[in-house]
Every structure is written in structure tokens, then in C-alpha cells.
Amino acid sequence: MFGTGLLKGLGVTLKHALDTFEDDRESVPDRYKGSLELGNNRRVIQQPIDQEGLLTIQYPEEKRLLPERFRYIPMLIWDSEKQEDRCTACGICAKVCPPQCIWIVRDSDENGKPVTRCSEFYIDAAVCMSCSFCVEFCPFDAIKMNHDYELAVYDRYPQLVYDMEELTVPLEYYAALWPTQYEEEQARRKQEEEEKRKQEEEKAAKAAARAAAKSAAAAEKPAAGAPKRSAAELQALAKERAAQRQAQAAEGGGDDDAAAAKRARMEDLKRRAQERARQRKQDSGQ
Amino acid sequence: MTQATAVAEAPANDLALTPELADAVVGTWAEDTETAYFIAPDRILDVLAHLRDAQGYDLLSNLTCIDYQGYGGKLRADVSERLDVVYHLYSTRRGGGSVALHVRVPADDTVPSATSVYPGANLQEREVYDLFGVKFDGHPNLRRILLWDGFNGHPMRKDWHEAYYEEDAKPFRSRHPKGEYAFHEDKLPWAKNTTYPAGWDPDSWQEAVAYVPVSQAPQHENQPHLDTESIVVNLGPHHPSTHGVFRMLTRVEGETILALEPEMGYLHRNHEKIGERNTWLMNMPFTDRLDYLNSMSNNWAYALAVEKLAGIEVPERAEYLRVIMAEFTRIVNHTWSIGFILNDLGALQTPALYAIEEREMILDMFEAVSGARMMCNYMRFGGVVRDLPEGWREQAAYLANDRLPRALDELDRLLTENEILKARGRGVGYLAVEDLIALSVTGPMIRAGGLAYDIRKAEPYGIYDRFDFDIPTLPNSDIYDRYYIRLLEAMESVRILQQALRDMPEGETLGGRGGYTLRAPEGEVYGRLEAPKGELGFYLASDGKTQPWRYHVRSPSYINLNALGPMSVGYKVADAIVILGAIDIVLGEVDR
Ligand code: SF4
Ligand code: SF4
């Protein structure tokens, strides 16, 4: 009969309307279940895959919970344990970058000899295509993908050309964004370090044995390599360094200003990372 | 034709040409990649006609060109002619592989146009003319297509350099270890990079509206009582119904279309030139940006071609993952395109939004596995880059076994029997399937005309021969069938997904590190697959370096537009909108 097709179709639209209506009558509609309430109508939403009815999200008040692998613009990792940048200025990321939007200046020591540290590192975020090749091929786990996607600015130059300071985040920030990958990576790095240490120890032991055989007189001298310190000594050293840093920060002025600003930034990022980790935990708990 | 390099013995016999044509073949490449025959330029039309009529090669799939200036390889080193026009022919009836023909000419020579044998050569020859400057004798409408008339030079020639030219090949030396960051604007102030062709004056130039075939259309329809006049109307370039920046130049008599000519290139970025500066791997994320709805199948098509060229094996699990991603992509594309066909028909937004509910879920799945919803950049040479995250397979199985079949059934109930859709779609935009093939159209369009030609069956790639699925066909070759075939194909994709998700083994997903230092052996290859929009092919030639010597994308959206004009003539303006919508184009892929 003419018109049955139309009526059937209208039935489908009616079902959609009813689904949403029913959902909305519940005290917590399905689409808000499992989402993190930030107050003031702001939420981080993770929709269940069997969600029926309304699926839309009221951005920017409501945001989606991003999956761990989400990639946007790269960030550089500041190793908070070792208190150093992980990047060694090897340049592999700049070589694999498809649109060639990474610029690296390798640092050099007083004699002009290149060292494994960069003095400048730029990423043109307007050109970056978020491909993640730099991350894939960095041999030092020094560059990772950031999740921060609200980057709009009024001018491309220089705001969207990120320098090292803007790119650098502490390790904890990365650990909060990429928990699974971070765990795997830490395990791998530990193992590698262990192996390296063992090798070095063996080497040192061999060298020591050789040295001992060569001259019995110098038996008291420690073997080649860094002198070993006890855990207590190391802790004391760390404390001393921290005190120095604090004193520097208190003094302020000159170069230290920049350093202090950087530390403040790191602290801020760490705090944000912790918040995020908390969000995640809360979310997965529900 | 001068002496060809490295002529193999008796090549003509492999082609099974008639004795009169045997002397048309003047050589082959000495490489052990795909065999390619050199044909004497003046005999190419005879050879094409013979292959089409006597051997059933009815589809001129790919037509492109290579510039050999400065070629660095060994096997093709002493090429005397600079340009080389390449043809790839397939048989839609028999299936199977291609015949590759080469016609080599000096830089300013002409080649006979293949349009008289294969009308589908139309757009591709215009592209070669535009980007390489090869003139085609006898082409009905040889104008620039992607670039405008005031563009100086032919950019795909190796000696042409772009405005911000740095070096011939990446990585550029200025990035490391002394990174010299410079704002692009400072490097080359605007206006200094503008040159015009000799004798061309920007001030006096006016775009000719009287393009062939619009100019050749009949000026009047026979109207006994009215003195009417046909007029030229531009649809687009800025118009929501053109699905991007695309223009249809039409001559209309009242509401009836007398002639229609597609105008494109607004989104042209010379993807192929960029591709020839890039290393092999760098091109992978660029392919995402071709048909940006289907980055997974784009990735796969490119990986497929490179793997064929370099002889790279793919682990079992990666093969399954590729199929899963590609079929999810097909569903994404088809539901999206159904939504838009209905949008163009005036069923504004409701079907489109219903259609994309599940699309959103699939995109979230893509994001969880690859890190991005649309620019997935997921495949590498020899597999895929990451294994699935925890819980992914279960969610995908829920989608494939439960949610997607339900959603597609719902779309079916919503639309298929709808009387308005039938009234608007039945018999509109008809073109016989033979004509579509002759126009090099591929994909759902020809299956909606009754021809079960699908590369997944005709020349299986990956592991498609292991799955149990059908190629649906519909008989009428009109808008309605083009809508419905997409729904049926999406349902078949669901079947493949169910099997793949059930059978996928554990194991490796990538052999090696994905090959960022890959040097493909010298040779050429044409790799293709059944993308949601039709045959997506990559024609690659390597001189043994870290960059492709030639990187060409055979894009279905672009080539399917061959049929837009012929399909629209005689219908109303409102129908032309839907006819375009039912071709299902993405301008990122059309303009490249
Ligand atoms: S980020 Fe990694 S790849 Fe890039 S220069 Fe630093 S260490 Fe090398
Ligand atoms: S994500 Fe890709 S484009 Fe962006 S900086 Fe890294 S390699 Fe370059």
C-alpha cells in the first residue's frame, strides 16, 4: 500500500525520540553514567558502547575521555628522577618527521665539541600532522604525544612554533596520560639499565682484576669508573642539590629566573597530571 | 621511437597481439617487477583497441606519466625520451591482473589520446597534460584541470620547484643538528613567487565560461510556444551540496540540464610532488589525507603497493587487523554516504544523523587503537603499527555481532521502502553499466548497475579469499540503486567483520620496525584495492633510493567524476545534486 514505507520510517524516528525521552527521565541519563562530574555542568564523558538514545556531547562543557593512545602534538620528556631532559639531540625525530616541522640545535661544550643535549628544539604545531613518527622512532623515549588539544591562538607566529620550554613536560605528566605504555616502557627501561649496569660492572671488575695483577702496590686504589657511593651518601647529595636549587630560586635574578619559572611550570604540570590520574582512577572505578 | 632500454626478447608474444600489431611493441623494462610493454606512440590506439575488443580488457584503470629527467637508477638509466605515459588495463569480466603499457615520448611531443577507445581517459589525460605537459592528440577537451590557466609550468616535472623549495629529498639538512627555524613568510615574501606563462596576462584574463562540452550543448530545446534561451549556471564552488569546494558548470534550459562539466582543483596541493620528496614511509600519514573518511583503506592500499615492490611479508594477525579496519571503514563510508545522498535529496539531517551514530562509535574504536579518529596512520610496510588495546576486540565484536546489524536494519526500515526516496531515485541518473566501465568508473556505482566487479573477489589481496561473503548487485543503475547497494555492501562488511573477529589469531603485528630507512628495489608496481569508493591504486616507481621516483594515486573519487556529465544530462538541476552525491566523492581525494 502506498505510504507504508513512509509510516515505517516514521516509526523509526519515533523510536529514537522515545529512547531519548526515556533516557532523559532517569535521574542520571545513560550518557552521563560513568562520567566524571566537574561541577557547573562540566563533565568528562565516557559513553558506554551500548548507549541508546541521544549520543551528542555538549562541548566545551562536556568533553570526551580520551583514549590513552590519542595523539596530538608531541611533548618532550623531562626525567624527574634524573633531573634532566631525556632528549639527546640525536635528530632521528627530525629526520623521520614527514612535514619536517622539527628543528633541533645540538648543544656543544666550551671547546665546541657537540654534546648529547639540545640547546633548542622547535616544533611548528601548525605544520605538525600528528603522525607520531617522532615518537615511534625516538630511541630514548624522549618524545611522546600530548593529549592537550585546545591550542587555538590568534597568531601563528610565534605562538604555534613551540620551543623547548613549551614542549617539555615532567615524566609524571606523561605517566598520567599514557599509563599502560608508561608501565611497559619503565619495565623495559629498567631491564635495559640493569643489563647495562651489569655489563659495566663486569667490565669494571675485569679492569680491576687486570689492574690488580699489574701492580699489587696500587691495590688500595678504586677501579676505573665513578666511585661507588652508599645509599645514605646519595641521599645526602640529593638533599644538598635540592637545597642549592631552593637557594637559587630564592635568590632569583638572571639565569636562575628562567630555571625557577621552568620548575614552577613543571610543578604545575605535575599537579595537573596528578589531577588527571585521579580522574582516570575515579572513572575506571565506576 | 628510438631504441628502448633493455629490450627483452619477443615481448609481443606475451601480449598475444595479432601479427599486424606485433611490431607495435618495441620493448619491455629489464626489471623483474611487473612486466611493462613499450608501445610505439603511433600504434598505441590500435593496441588499446585490440586489447579491449579481442582480449576483454574493458577497464582503463590507471593512466599517468613519469618524468625521467635526472633519473638515478641503473636499470632505466639510459632512457632517451624524457616522458613516459603509462596505461594499466584490467578486465572486469574475467578479473585478474593488469596489462601495463608504456608510451615514451620526448618532452614536447604529443601522444594520441585514448579517449576514442576508452572515454574514461578523459580526466586522467587532462591531469597528465596539466601536471606533465604531455599533449594528447584528439582529446575532446584538453584544458588544465587541477591548476588554473595562469599557472606557470608543469609541476610534476622533476625540474619544477615549489615556492618554498628546499631540497629534492627529505630529510632536509636545515633541521638537524643546526636547526635554523625560519618563518615561511620571511623566506619567500608573497608575490615574488608568482610567475605567469609566457604571453599570459593576468589583467586581461577572463575565465572562459564557454567550456567544451558546455559550449557545444544545444542552445535551444524545441519549445513550440515559447521563445526560451538556455543559460550557463555555476553550481558551486562554495555550495553545501558539492561536498566540498567543487564546481559544476552547467548549461540549463529551464530546469533541465543540457550539459554539465565538473571543475575541480580547489583543494589541490600536489600530493604527488610532496610524495616524491618524502621517504617511502613518510607518505603513509599523507595518504590519510586523501579520502579522509577512509584513512584505513588508504593506508592499506599504499602499504600493499610498497610491499609488492619491496617483497615484504605481513604477519597473520596484521592481515586480520587490516581486514577488520578496512571493513569498519567501509561501513563508516557507506553509512556516511547514505546519509548524504538523503541530505541531497532533501531529507535534511535526520537520516544522516542516524547513519553516523554508529560511525561515531567506530571512529572512537579507531581512536583507541591508532590514536586518531580519522587520520589513523595505522599501517606500516609489513603490518600494522600497534596491537589492539585491552577490551577492543570484545567491543568490536559487540559492534559487529549486535549493534551494526541492528543499525543497518534500522536504516533499511527507515529508508528503503520510503515512497519519496523511490519517487526521487528510481530511474534518475541512469547510465548503462557498459558506459560506466568505458568511463573507468569503479566501485559501488558499477555494482548498482548489475556488474559484480569487486577487487576483493576479482583479484584478491590480503586474506580476502578466506572469508565467506557476497558481492551484492542491483540491476537499475540509478540513484535509488546506488543508495541501496551501499546498504547491502555495508551488511556484507558486517559478515566479514564477524568472521575476522572470530578467527583472528594472536601473534606479531609488525615484522621489523616499519621501515623508515626502506630502499625499495628499482622497478615499478601498481597496487590496488577495493576502497569504499572504488578502485584505489598506487602506482609507484623506484630508482632504488629512499624516495619514490614516481608516486601516483589512482583515486576513485576523481576518476568516477568522468561519469558525472553523461549521467546528469537530461535530468533536472535538483537531480544533478543527488547524482553527484551518489557518486560519493571526497574532494581531498579528487584534487589531491
Ligand atoms: S626527541 Fe628522541 S629522536 Fe628526537 S632528538 Fe631527542 S632523543 Fe633524538
Ligand atoms: S607527530 Fe609527526 S609531524 Fe608531528 S612532529 Fe612528530 S613526526 Fe613531525
Description:
The complex is a heterodimer of chains A (286) and B (592). Chain A has 286 residues and is α+β, with helices and mostly antiparallel strands. Chain A has eight helices and ten strands. In chain A, strands 4, 5, 8 and 10 form a four-stranded mixed beta sheet that branches. Chain A has a three-stranded mixed beta sheet with strand order 1-2-3. In chain A, a hairpin with a 2-residue loop joins strand 1 (36-39) and strand 2 (42-45). Chain A is elongated and about 105 Å long. Residues 217-235 and 248-255 of chain A have low confidence and may be disordered. Chain B folds into two domains: 7-137, NADH:ubiquinone oxidoreductase Nqo5 subunit (Beta Polymerase, domain 2, 2-Layer Sandwich), CATH 3.30.460; 271-591, Cytochrome-c3 Hydrogenase, chain B. Chain B has 19 helices and 17 strands. Chain B has helices spanning 11-15, 44-55, 121-132, 184-187, 271-277, 283-288, 295-310, 316-345, 350-370, 392-415, 419-425, 433-438, 444-447, 455-458, 479-503, 556-560, 564-568, 573-583, 587-591; strands at 25-28, 36-39, 59-67, 83-90, 99-105, 110-112, 135-137, 231-235, 238-239, 244-245, 247-253, 256-263, 379-380, 383-384, 523-531, 534-542, 548-554. Classes of the chains: A alpha+beta (286), B alpha+beta (592). At the A-B interface, helix 1, helix 2, strand 6, strand 7 and helix 3 of A face helix 6, helix 9, helix 10 and helix 11 of B. Bound molecules: iron/sulfur cluster (2 copies). The site of one iron/sulfur cluster (SF4) has 14 residues of chain A, from helix 3.
Helix count of chain A equals 8
User: Measured on Cα atoms, how large is the radius of gyration of chain B?
Assistant: 24 Å
The CATH superfamily of the largest domain in chain B is known as Cytochrome-c3 Hydrogenase, chain B
Give average pLDDT of chain A, whole number.
Answer: 76
What is the second-level CATH architecture of the largest domain in chain B? Answer: Orthogonal Bundle
